[in-house]
Amino acid sequence: MRPIGSILLALWLALITPFFSLLAIIITFLPAHRRYALISQWSYLVIKAARLCCGIRYRVIGLQNLPPQPCVLLSRHESTWETIAYQAIFPPQVMVLKKELLRIPFFGWGLARMSPIAIDRGSGRRALRQVEEQGRERLAAGFYVVIFPEGTRMAPGAQREYQSGGAWLAKKTGTQVVPVAVNSGYCWPKHSFFKRSGLITVRIGTAFSTADLSVTDINMKVNQWIESQSDKDEKG
């Protein structure tokens, strides 16, 4: 554990988040991609601080697998780390997230200006329609769409049945799917203030067409690939 580093990282977040939140509000009038470019600098600063303060490094394997056109990224979700770092790793993207996050002072205000798809996870079919409608709009606007099919952060090694939203969006829009594996939970544990030093690996799988696959088939294919990557990296 890095207790002092974790405290320093928290102080850094407390310092820069209000600034970027106010900036996000000020630049609301800018086009979506321009807003994204400016606000996402927050993510770069946080990831650099995590490396300097906590010794959290990362590597990306398979970046060449990303198609040039926007697609749906279905990712393993172990930590808050990937919700931040993906802004620095992938092309401009939006995330499907629970709408409660937009109510967090400062952080939520800035997040709202990055065109997320904020859903009520308890609304069932209505949330699914929202993902489809807004996801289609974001893809058409040139944004990749990141979805965590597990629906919540999972401890390393734990599994949960995939939700259908991401696969549904890809199927309905005829968009390619790219599976993403990440082992961030070892360095940035769920529900823990303290961070561990180590190397996080982000593995990007090969894009595949959803044309001849059902929603269940898509999720199964993504799950099988992600689970096949889980034993390739040491803990952190």
UniProtKB/TrEMBL annotation:
Keyword annotations from UniProtKB, A to Z: Acyltransferase, Membrane, Transferase, Transmembrane, Transmembrane helix
Record bears the keyword Transmembrane: yes
PANTHER family, per database record: 1-ACYL-SN-GLYCEROL-3-PHOSPHATE ACYLTRANSFERASE
Pfam families the UniProt entry points to: Acyltransferase (PF01553)
SUPFAM superfamilies attached to this UniProt entry: Glycerol-3-phosphate (1)-acyltransferase (SSF69593)
InterPro entries linked: Plipid/glycerol_acylTrfase
Residue ranges of every copy of the Phospholipid/glycerol acyltransferase domain listed in the record: 71-185
Domain of life: Bacteria
Protein name from the UniProt record: 1-acyl-sn-glycerol-3-phosphate acyltransferase
This protein's pathway: Lipid metabolism
Transmembrane segments: 6-30
GO molecular function: acyltransferase activity
